[in-house]
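User: Hey, quick favor. My workstation is busy. Could you predict this chain's structure for me?
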Amino acid sequence: MVEKHAGWRGYKSKTVVKSKGGAGGIWFLGFVGALVYYLHFRSGTFWLVIWAIIKALLWPAFLVYRLLLHMGA
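Assistant: No problem, here it is.
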């Protein structure tokens, strides 16, 4: 993320770069893997494909839900 801070009336501006996105690639690979998995079982009609894409986007929530059920929380 890049933020620009301007001083008085826009003079002396500086750019601050924040980089904390190291896990983005891993989440993307997880999304692609989940998408391939769900499309393998749900390919057919248009709405089943859309549902497979939604499930691929939300797979971390499903994972946490199942883990909490298993732990008895």
